[in-house]
Amino acid sequence: MRLVSALATTGLVVGLLAGCSDDQTNGSAGASGDGPRNAPSSETRTGSPDDPPQEDLRVTETLTGLTTPWGLAPLDDGGLLIGSRDTAEIRLLAPGATEPQVVGRVDDVRVEGESGLLGLALNSDEKTLYAYRTGDTENGIVRMTWDGRTLGTPEEVVSGIPGGASFHQGGGLVIGPDDLLYVGTGDNGNPPDAQDPDSLSGKVLRFTLDGEPAPDNPSGTAVYSLGHRNAEGLVFDDDGRLWESEFGQDRFDELNLIEAGGNYGWPEVEGTGGGDDYTDPKAVWSTDDASPSGIAWWDGDLWLAGLKGETLWEVQPDGPDVSTVTDPVAHFTARYGRLRNVVAADDGTTMWLVTSNTDGRGEPVAGDDRLLSISR
């Protein structure tokens, strides 16, 4: 394997070289879906939620006591659907409510390591919810009807994504402005598969909403881009560009601008410097400083939720061709612990941010996990 240093010209390096990426360490495996993997202690975290908001962001603690929140799907009325990785339940936080209510559950979900119920995506008319689930041998996408009060029986529309490993299961899910379904997958613990055009591992996939490969995909299959290690975050910006957040192994995490047919290097390249054969990321971080999972587009910027880095990173594309990005700005470092996912509310005035301290790798305190509302 040829591993190219990221200290090349086109990427932006944030922080120092250190440590393994958060998703690479072995962590806790084999936990049941009945509750949090680490029981919260009564201790408080340095930089508690009662501290004054950092910089120009205002924070409201909306919910506490969540179990491994992962997927988030905002609703037009201001509500939010929240999926739990370990229980495979989906809850509704209705506008004005103080407690979320269970509105559905996905069965046959394998819960171990990073596996479970992962990304959620709601279609434009809010009548169908898509969910990424992991299985014993393969992963898939299910869809459920949504009537505003409850979810229908899950129907599998995508199958055959390699699964069964405890780590690198991806989970990014977004419906694009083209009404197509984009799916981020991991290498399923077998890095060479990310370069195999015939494998669905280590890819960004693109489907119709009925689960068929999009007809104009560059490969003629479901593969839209390849060379990804673990893609847990996908988002479109206001100009219809697709961005992806990606875990590195032990050197560099990445922010990628996804182009049809692009090869983003893994496992031949981690970070930048792959030359003409590979597409460089727009920004990289030390794995200690980020381990980015969810990604949002809000208020003209990209926002990445960092697990190991315990930081919400703000990045602004620079110029109309986004050939570069501005220096990332760190928010809330070590204040709330591990940050799993972030998504813009439908009205555009706020973001939702969830922590991930009960996922087997965090150090939960009283109140974890939390849903936070972020505004300017």
CATH homologous group name = TolB, C-terminal domain
Shape: globular
Radius of gyration: 19 Å
CATH classification, class level: Mainly Beta
Strand arrangement within the widest β-sheet reads 1-18-17-16-15
CATH architecture annotation: 6 Propeller
Biggest sheet character: 5 strands, mixed
The first-to-last residue Cα distance is: 45 Å
Care to count the β-strands? 27
Counting structural domains, the number is 1
**Count the helices. How many?**
0
Estimate the mean pLDDT confidence: 88
Helix content: under 10%
**Beta-strand content estimate:** 35-45%
Q: Can you walk me through this structure?
A:
This protein is mostly beta strands and 376 residues long. It has one domain (13-375): TolB, C-terminal domain (Neuraminidase), CATH 2.120.10.30. It is 0% helix and 36% strand. The chain is built from no helices and 27 strands. It has strands at 13-14, 58-63, 69-74, 80-84, 89-93, 101-105, 117-122, 128-133, 138-145, 155-162, 173-175, 181-184, 203-207, 223-226, 231-236, 242-246, 252-258, 283-286, 292-298, 301-306, 312-315, 317-318, 324-325, 329-331, 339-344, 351-355, 371-375. The strands form seven sheets. Strands 1-18-17-16-15 form a five-stranded mixed beta sheet, with no helix packed on it. It has a four-stranded antiparallel beta sheet with strand order 2-27-26-25, with no helix packed on it. A four-stranded antiparallel beta sheet has the order 3-4-5-6, with no helix packed on it. A hairpin with a 2-residue loop joins strand 19 and strand 20 (301-306). The chain is globular, with a radius of gyration of 19 Å. Residues 1-21, 25-37 and 44-54 have low confidence and may be disordered.
